[in-house]
Amino acid sequence: MKNILFAASEGVPFIKTGGLADVVGSLPKDIDREYYDVRVILPKYSCMKQEMKDKLEYISSFYMDFDWKSMYVGLLKAEVDGVVYYFIDNEDMFNTYKPYTDDALFEIRRFSFFSKAVLSALPTIGFRPDLIHCHDWQTGLIPVYLKERFQENEFYRGIKTVMTIHNLRFQGKWNVQDVESITGLSGYYFTPDKLEAYKDANLLKGGIVYADAVTTVSPTYAEEIRTPFYGEGLEGILNARQNDLRGIINGIDYTDFSPDNDKYIVKPYTVENFRRNKVKNKTELQKELGLKEDPKCFMIGIVSRLTDQKGFDLIAYVMEEMLNTDAIQVVVLGTGEERYENMFRYFDEKYSDKLAANIYYSEELSHKIYAASDAFLMPSLFEPCGLSQLMSLRYGTLPIVRETGGLKDTVEPYNEYEGTGTGFTFRNYNAHEMMATVRYAEKIFYDKKREWNRMAERAMKADFSWKVSAGKYQEMYDWLIG
Ligand code: ADP
Ligand code: GLC
Questions:
Q1: Quick one: pLDDT at residue 110?
Q2: What does pTM read for this prediction?
């Protein structure tokens, strides 16, 4: 049996802000349990839902030196669907009303604490991983601390690490002096070939330099991040490590996302009966959200963090044009940057029967939108993988996406001559190109309904479960652990 420990800052079903949580919550279930014991370790946030906190069981606690203090580290445990989860508890660090705060220095401090606590906790929890699989900058210091101090100790010797980049935009950067002091790492580590980047300390870079292998969440993004446009300043180190860098596409959990068995939607449907039944979800949602009730109207869904990563500049630019006919309805669910929240609120006021802006987080409404919409708009500036488009495909809701990162790898462009494809794509980050693609989709929807439905059928049948990708992770684990 090979022991693998996932370390991350969020994971379904305990805490989620985006796709990272979906991956951390679903991939361990699909790794072959006969050969691998995969467990997960997360921070214990006080903002977790009470029903989730009630599942946690206290294991033990100890004190750890960190940031010139002796700090309490509580350890808790829970088991969900056969996967064991551990939690690191410290009220000063994780008693926040959202999982992440806007205080960049505090974020550096709490996730450096988490990274060191994960390693310190291993002998106590009684699970010695052969490999620690680190996710995003919040766990970037694990490979660093492991090499810097823990591996002197017999217990830790030989533990391998993988650093998975879910989003290169977030790196955990702060000035070297403070980070040196907080982490206790010596000046040796803060040079441009190690943790320093552009004069700052950079925790993700630490992970990339010190991990035994680096992955990201799609083959195209793995290529893109080696260029200046997508590399966010780290393209140099990513090129230097290109032989150890792989892109493995994400899957989704089809037990949580299946239109034939979804507790949130009014009318379940299958590949056989979606032509008749899917539309009932649309008319119900129209009623619920105060849109014009019209089963024939082309409904476009958006479920997203409202950030510039997701292409909202393009949407803002042509929103008026999109809504000035009666042919399109737009349903939005998301939170994020104020300018985008307000943009959607404004259009909701102005076109209340055509656009519904839901500026909050709701699992339930997200499922209803995936099921009800005809198309799903995701014109991202960059997209490491993207899970929303995979969920849409599953519900026969055709994605309209920009050809970047995982969107390019998962949405096959419609080809009307060959009768192939699962969605609509455009290449350049340009509002008019996006608008032309939306118009094209609209035309196929209204004029070639049979073609549209064939495409929806192909989308629903496309397989984005974890099966293949879990195999690729296993291959990598075997290669590293031997
Ligand atoms: P990212 O991780 O960059 O946010 P992904 O497409 O990988 O993008 O994953 C987004 C996940 O978060 C999906 O599961 C999506 O349904 C969910 N999501 C995003 N915003 C909301 C929201 N406001 N309410 C509910 N779910 C949301
Ligand atoms: C990040 C990316 C998204 C990806 C998710 C899970 O949040 O923005 O593209 O799907 O992580 O890997």
A1: 98
A2: 0.97
